[in-house]
Here is the input.
Amino acid sequence: MMPKISRYLSSLAVLALAALGAGRAEAASQLLGLVASNGLPTPLQCGDGVCSGHFSSFCLQEARPAPATDSEYRLAPGARLTLVLRRADGASLRLPGNGLLAIHALIGFTSVRIDVPQAKLAALGAVSAAVEVGPDSSILPVEAAGDPNPQTPEEIAYATGPMRHLAERSFEQPGPAADAIRLTSLVINSLPADEPQTPAARDAVLDQVMARASALPLTAQGVAEARRIYRSCGIAVDSRSSFNLRTCLEIQHADMMAATNREFWRSTGGS
Here is the structure.
């Protein structure tokens, strides 16, 4: 049975209000962790001159304000993003993401958009691209001029060190919640611009994602939950209680990330 869409709209509204509050605040927003790829890079989709992808993120500083939508981020010390390119002749190319990739907040602290201009990929002879998130990767909000409460070196070191290491257990190791989140994000990044309109066509997309993820050590519960969420969103689209499949999946992904983040903070005693 499909959970009430209003529940997820409510969750999104809470995150949006937090983001608006962050936009009004002058203090630096939260330092975020990026969920590591664990060997499965995220494919980028191209359109309107930009190639971009949806990436799961989480809050490492509970006391800091949540980022506003489109807030710019940069890699923290020790973080690694790799741009994985495929050329027309089948050859592959791996490039450091620094200087090539841009990072912006999407829904509060739960997701970010990572993108690269399509012209840059064309200049490199790439016909497709993906981004690999390295282990223990974190991102910092880009510093704003006149910030009365900027991130201090001590805050950054604590968040990107001990706290980021602790977060691996909640967000990156196999488990029902972490697996459902990872698979849902993969589905979001695999949806074509003209979303599948029938159950059979939607199942074909899901089957492709599951085939790609088959090498990961996923739990049966996590896979089942991801399938349930995806099919429930299909029902929501068919019944017109959701605008489209992507929107529904992004809302449910945000809800799962927020719940997992709350549990993470409970387990660590907060910031």
